[in-house]
From TrEMBL:
Cofactor names: thiamine diphosphate
Domain of life, per lineage: Bacteria
Enzyme Commission code(s) on record: 1.2.4.4
Keywords linked to the UniProt accession: Oxidoreductase
Ranges of residues in domain Transketolase-like pyrimidine-binding: 6-181
Protein name, per record: 3-methyl-2-oxobutanoate dehydrogenase (2-methylpropanoyl-transferring)
Gene3D superfamilies per record: 3.40.50.920, 3.40.50.970
Length: 326
């Protein structure tokens, strides 16, 4: 397979297939990942082709899934653990934070835990409670974890490959409402660094920075703003720990304005850290305060209200107007 159009979900499936083919130490484990192929069919067909010893259906026990993955990594395997939905990760949070994130430092660098934790996250699919959370800031705050999120099919394929090859634990957030968005995937390309940001659209008046599901919204906002003569740069952050602050700084030094967009609540969200850092780094370049657009500081609402909760085109464009109004 060279370059072809794939949905993001299929790109992840192909990436996992490639990893299983390339390295016999790669294992996939999680609830319904085997016979069912996952609730979003990300692991579809993999157990049939690679066997039950490598694509493992687990009990409904997230703490057990991650604990087992840690044990396998200690024995030299590279487990890829799926958490079925974002809101299900919290029973495993103790294992992730107290064990997975700490073992390398605890052993003074002697022990590596190459574990990938895949988490479908975010809303926009009309799901019930605990199926539409955006908990990425909770993990980015924890030293010892890498946290990334692709926004398109090509990045999904390559970033998952790079995450599996990493000797550090990686929390891999997949924007579930983008699973069916198609994009070109070139499996023979040379990918950029896992933790580098990428300019999606160049502009000169303002920078919109986002990741995961909100990159598409920001790109749409930039196109709408262009109809009014405004030149908006869109930056896909791709990684939340570490963050490519140099790329954000370079963009802001050019545009003088920054609006940060994410689905997660604005309060203590990842945008707050970026806003603070860029204010420190770019104080004399800023023409307006750094603004943030995100969800509300409230539990995720029922499906019929999620369009009001999620930051959409209008809220992003309102922030653009406010920034350009200074």
């Amino acid at each position: 397979m060279a370059a072809q159009q794939l949905p993001l979900a299929k790109a992840l499936n192909e990436s996992l297939r490639k990893a299983l083919e390339t390295d016999p130490k790669v294992l996939i484990m999680g609830e319904d990942v085997g016979k069912l192929g996952g609730v979003f069919r990300i692991t579809d067909g993999l157990q049939k082709d690679f066997g039950e010893d490598r694509v493992i259906d687990t009990p409904l026990a997230e703490s057990g899934i991650i604990g087992t993955a840690i044990g396998l990594a200690l024995r030299g395997y590279r487990p890829v653990a799926e958490i079925q939905f974002d809101g299900f990760v919290f029973p495993a949070y103790d294992q992730i934070v107290t064990q997975l994130a700490k073992m390398h430092a605890r052993s003074l660098g002697k022990v590596k835990l190459p574990v990938v934790v895949r988490i479908p996250y975010g809303g926009g699919i009309g799901a019930v409670e605990h199926h539409s959370e955006s908990p990425e800031a909770l993990f980015a705050h924890v030293a010892g974890l890498k946290v990334v999120s692709p926004s398109n099919a090509s990045d999904a394929y390559w970033m998952l490959q790079q995450a599996i090859q990493s000797d550090d634990p990686v929390i891999f957030f997949e924007p579930k409402r983008r699973y069916w968005d198609k994009g070109e995937v070139d499996t023979e390309a040379i990918p950029g660094p896992l933790h580098s940001a990428r300019v999606v659209r160049t502009g000169s008046d303002l920078t919109l920075a986002a990741y995961g599901p909100m990159v598409k919204v920001c790109t749409q906002a930039a196109a709408t703003a262009a109809e009014e003569g405004r030149s908006i740069e869109v930056l896909d952050l791709r990684s939340l720990s570490p963050i490519d602050f140099d790329a954000v700084q370079a963009s802001v030094e050019k545009t003088g304005r920054l609006v940060l967009v994410h689905e997660a609540p604005v309060f203590y969200g990842s945008g707050a850290e970026i806003a603070a850092r860029i204010t420190e780094r770019c104080f004399y370049h800023l023409e307006a305060p750094v603004l943030r657009v995100g969800g509300f500081h409230a539990p995720y609402p029922p499906a019929r209200l999620e369009d009001e909760y999620l930051p959409g085109l209008d809220r992003v464009l309102d922030a653009v107007d406010r920034s350009l109004g200074y």
